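INTERNAL AUDIT FORM
Audit reference: QA-55
Scope: verify that the stored structure record matches its stored sequence.
Auditor: D.O.
Record contents follow.
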Amino acid sequence: MSRTTLRAALQPLEADGLISRRRRHGTFVNGHVLRTSMRLNRLVAFTELIEQCGHEPSVDHQRQRVGVPDAAVADTLGVGAGEECLMVQRTLCADRDPVITMLDTVPLSGLDRAPAEVEEADSTFAFLAVNGARGVDYATSEVVPRVAGDGIPEGLDLPPGTPYIELLETMYSREHEPVAVSRVSVNDMVVRLSLLRRGL
């Protein structure tokens, strides 16, 4: 195999943090990058993450409604004040216990069908793809520590005072246009997230 081919194969592995390369020392597998956590620089299905954490994943039926998003979400999506969007909620379970809830907000103009005709899917990305939204090229995630209150976050059944993680995700098309916003609440006592930082 040529060195050029080998270099090309190793570059994405290094970019994902799976290997480290040091001049005059060689290439090393990063053993500390465990399968029990999700590095936030990679798009991994949450069901796959639950499975990697040693649990049986399942997805409750999605619930959906048409409504007006809050001002912050509307601003992120670039929709006008009072413009209606489709809001889709789903709960992911680990061994039948709820561990992740998602609330996806998609402009009605971004779908190729009426809200009553949308199909269910296990993830935000699959939902957007199956319902004719523009393809998602990348997503940004803001990580926000939260504390559960009475009925908050909805669907996770956490006792008040329990800490949890909220991901505020914005999905973008290849043209850098916002496609959807997703508010993801994670019981991080069951599903662990990690952030990989590398020196530049």
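Auditor finding: record pair retrieved intact. DSSP finds four helices and eleven strands in the chain.
Action required: none
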